[in-house]
């Protein structure tokens, strides 16, 4: 009798996949992805980040590996490791194109010729094909978590990403917002998107939520406060926490430093580590 061999995939060794989404740009998706990866590493986990922001990939810079090049092995693209222990690995469109003055001048069909150049005007087809290939072609090896940092909005890239990941049963999505109403309104659309695509909402994070004065510890709510928590309550999804505006956090990201290791007394530290703990607990529950 002919033996049936299961199709092997580069994601077979990945235990949990989660997506980080936001309705608006600049609310801190890549920040949350980065700090979540660092917190999970400090809990002894092996983590990968897949940066599918085709237009503005910022993950390489946040780990200060923006000048790294990726190469291919038999199984596909080898991700960039940020440490010798290989506990965090990254793949970003930012690594793939030719670099000019630090920015990526990127033509996707040059990197993935299989996708074809007929749709060079950026039609949905090319994004769908590119993302599918990007998800399938990275040799991640064994990972506890793969964090997928997405572009802002609920565009074709998002649908393509969710569709490409669906066979691997992602754990769910973290939705990031700032406290202002407009950003919270965008998250409402993200909630609808998750419902429509069958993606579980792991919870909402309210980022840039107040500023704690480093001198007197008083909290000023620069962009108001509590919108994310209220929305979570209203939608019946978990609220993962409020991360304050923290100059040490933005500086760490700017310099590619490990905020979780270096700034445990900083105002954003407790919220960021609590978010990671809730994700860990949720993943454990799902595994048991
Ligand atoms: N809590 C915070 N405290 C201080 N600075 C922050 C905080 N969150 C994010 N930032 C800063 O805000 C900027 C935007 O954050 P980030 O790049 O993570 O947003 P994004 O949602 O991923 O953006 P894009 O949609 O462009 O990908 C970054 O410079 C980051 O350092």
UniProtKB/TrEMBL annotation:
Its main location: cytoplasm. SUPFAM superfamilies: P-loop containing nucleoside triphosphate hydrolases (SSF52540). GO terms for molecular function: 4 iron, 4 sulfur cluster binding; ATP binding; ATP-dependent FeS chaperone activity; metal ion binding. It is found in: Cytoplasm, Cytoskeleton, Cilium axoneme; Cytoplasm, Cytoskeleton, Microtubule organizing center, Centrosome, Centriole. The keyword DNA repair does not apply. Pfam families: ParA (PF10609). The keyword Cell membrane does not apply. Keywords: 4Fe-4S, ATP-binding, Cytoplasm, Iron, Iron-sulfur, Metal-binding, Nucleotide-binding. GO terms for cellular component: axoneme; centriole; cytosol; nucleus. GO terms for biological process: iron-sulfur cluster assembly. Component of the cytosolic iron-sulfur (Fe/S) protein assembly (CIA) machinery. Required for maturation of extramitochondrial Fe-S proteins. The NUBP1-NUBP2 heterotetramer forms a Fe-S scaffold complex, mediating the de novo assembly of an Fe-S cluster and its transfer to target apoproteins. Negatively regulates cilium formation and structure. Heterotetramer of 2 NUBP1 and 2 NUBP2 chains. Interacts with KIFC1. Interacts with NUBP1. This is Nucleotide binding protein 2. It comes from Pavo cristatus (Indian peafowl).
